[in-house]
Structures are given as C-alpha cells and as structure tokens.
C-alpha cells in the first residue's frame, strides 16, 4: 500500500527540475551580469555578454539542425569560444565532444566518426590538420559535418579556414535563445570524451547532466572556492570538459582567464596581471612553475592550485610548498568527470614538518562529498582491503559522479562496472585514516624475482634529484629476474648528470632490488595533459631487449 507521504505529493514544475550545469549560467547572468566573465588577451566579456553569446551560438546550432542527441565536436584551445560551447551545446540537449588539439588527423577522423559528429567548430590555427581529418572523415567514413571556423583575434600565427561558416558572423546572424535550459532528463548525455591514450586504446566516455552538475558543485565545495574567483585556464578545457570547471566558474560568478599557450612566462604574467586566485594543472605544468625564473613568481605566493592528471611526485608537492603556492591534490579519471577525490587537508597537518605534509598531501585521499563511494577493493573477491597501508587492491568508485558508460562499447562498459563498482585500474592501499594512496597502475607494477616494484616509488626517488625534470619507470624483460626496472629521464635545461650518479642517488632512497638497472636519457612521450604514455616506453624497452 502507498504510504501517506506518496499521496498528493507529486513532482511538479514548481518543486522538481532536472539538474543541469547550464542553469548556473542563467543564474549568474541574471544576478551578476555586469561582472567580468572572460578575459582573453584584448577581449573582455561580462556574464551578460557571455550568456548572450552562448544563447546566440545555441540558436545558430539549432538552425543547423542540432538538437537532442546530436554531437557537436570542437577543436579549440582555451578561448572564449570554448567556454561558450560548454554552455550552448548542452542547452540544446546536444552532446559536446571536445577534441584533443594534439591528436593526428587519422585519430581525429576516427573519433568524429565514432561519435557521429553533426557539427565541427574549429579554430583556424588547426585548419591544415582539420582539413586532413575532414578529408579522411568524408572519404573513409562517408561523414561530412557542418564546419564552423573560429578566427581568434589573439592568434597571430598561421591560420586556415576550412568551414562554410565563420563563428562571429554566425552569432551575429541569429537572435539569442530566450533561455539556456538543458534537457528534461538529467540522465541525458552532456558530453563524450575520449580517453587520452595512455593505454593506446581510446574509448568514448559518455557523461550526463546530473554528474556534471554535481561535480561542478563538488569542485567548489572541495576547494572552498569563494564567490567571484579569478580562474586561469592552464588545464586544457578539452580534457574531461576542464574537470567541470567551465560550469564551476559559472556557478561562482568567477572570471575565466584564457590562455592559448601554456608556457611559464605566460602563466605567471597572467596570474600577476589579472589577479588570478585559482588554477588547475597536471604535475608537468606545476614543474614548469617550480623551475621558472624566480623573478617571474615574485608577489604570487598564496595562489591556489589544484593538481591531478597523474600521480604527482612528492618532489613536486614539496617544491610548490617552498615557493608559497597552496596546492590541493585531487584524483580522478575521465570516467568520473575528472577529479572525484581529494587529499582533504586536516588542520593538524599544518603542525607536521614539510616532509610529512608532503607525504600526507601526496595521497589520493577521500571521495568528493557528492560521490557515493570510493574505496580499495580486491578485484577478485570485491571485498574491501584492510586499512593497514600495506594490502594492495584496486581503487573503485560508485555514485552519481560516474559516467553513463562507453559509447558503442557495451562489453567494455560491463567490464568497467563489474560487481556494481567502477574499476579504475589503479592499485592502491587504504591507510589507517582511510585515505587512499596509489601504489601503481595495475599494468605498471614491475615484478622482479617475484617481488612487486612500484614504478611510482622509483619515479619519486628520481624526481628528488635536482637535475631531473621528468622521468618514467617501466619494466624491461630480464632472463634471470623476469623483469627489472628501466628509467627514462629528461634533465632540466643546463643540468648535467650521468646514469651512474642517478643510480647511486636511487640506492640511497630505495631497496636494492627496486633501483633501476638502466637509465636512458630520452624524450618521454606525453599526452597533451601531461600524462606520460608508458605503453610507448614499454615498447621501447621490449624492442631494446630484443635487439640485445
């Protein structure tokens, strides 16, 4: 029998609305429309103007046939147009596909075909590349999206138009939609993002409006982000939709400070010129800041950064603390909208010495407030490991901030969600305070003579050498031990150190069997977000072993 609290108490338009981050834009434009929304070189917009431009873009896309379930691909750097796409496309119930600006033409064509892109918005800087991708898309897949060119006034280099429409002219030709509303069902897809390729096997991660809304709120709650922050775009907005920060900044009526190029001088000059309060970046970008000319950092102590994208080396966290930046360490994956856990800082940590603070802050931490579950489970039994800081298992998530699944890949979706949890593939321990600490990716553990070696532990040791700017450790086949660690190293400009010195350095920090048997001074392949592509390094290590 239905109980009394289900009688005459139905959902109505007055008391129930589908959650969508598009609503943040309408609220902020209505209440704080006169405040700055976007700074990009010489261009300045208020929230009223950004809302109007987004609504004009939505109207133009609608006129081109975009509607619920349509895919709009965008090939854009961190510019106002990229911000506007995050507001306009979801407002139509369409799905935003942000393309990685460092991909090659065959992969771009494959992705646009896989997600059935109806429209492509592309910056003219990438005209030659996108012309090649579009030829392949048409010739190999028979697909021809409508193409809109963005001719950014702040781009001074080579440019090529490849579309039938120009962005600003298209906006001028359409009256803005009266309201940016979003879909009726919050479970509808908001974006499809392709995994960044650290495994060599990209999959289309489909996320929904509910999750994007909740993670945008979590970003603010986790970071105690105040109203009216000044947020610098060092993180590519194409990566996990900028970790949902396009919507977080809208919610808090902040200012987007856009950067086309992520370079130390540009980052630090923008921070100083615009009074930047917050930014997000992968460890490699924080490394650029640490190693920048100290004069560029003068007066910037207290800027708040968020780091994720890869397990950050302890030396990076310690280095940022020494120069006075306040860093929050978060962890996540594309499948959980970017960051979904945080090394939440407890008040007592401030009393610890810097080394212990670095250790505490270097952990992957605890789940975001609106994520239902995050723990470390034995992937075979699905039982939680003991909180002893020793027993390894796999990090798993469940809740509203987990993807819908992989596009057109039901088997991979089922595998990822086996047992009612999302399997990350990251191996970790639960420490006694129930904070999670990653030990390695499952495929990156090196098994040498029956002993497990964490590649991250060896990398941490290498990063503590002052000459090392980037490193990665992978397994090399060994006839006696099965596998031994080999390290790929990049040195800071002007630094000099040989392999013997680095091996001696590691011997002072690691058990003997964990010390790299070989050091290679070679360029390290990385994704555009700073993740090291270890699958390429494993191939190098195997190839070299075969030659020998």
Automatic annotation (TrEMBL):
Residues 26-407 form the AMP-dependent synthetase/ligase domain. SUPFAM superfamilies: Acetyl-CoA synthetase-like (SSF56801). Residues 457-531 form the AMP-binding enzyme C-terminal domain. One of its GO terms (biological process) is fatty acid metabolic process. One of its GO terms (molecular function) is ligase activity. Coiled coil: none annotated. Keywords: Fatty acid metabolism, Ligase, Lipid metabolism. The keyword Ribosomal protein does not apply. Pfam families: AMP-binding, AMP-binding_C. Belongs to the ATP-dependent AMP-binding enzyme family. PANTHER family: ACYL-ACTIVATING ENZYME, BUTANOATE--COA LIGASE AAE1-RELATED. This is Acyl-CoA synthetase. It comes from Aquincola agrisoli. The lineage of its organism: Bacteria, Pseudomonadati, Pseudomonadota, Betaproteobacteria, Burkholderiales.
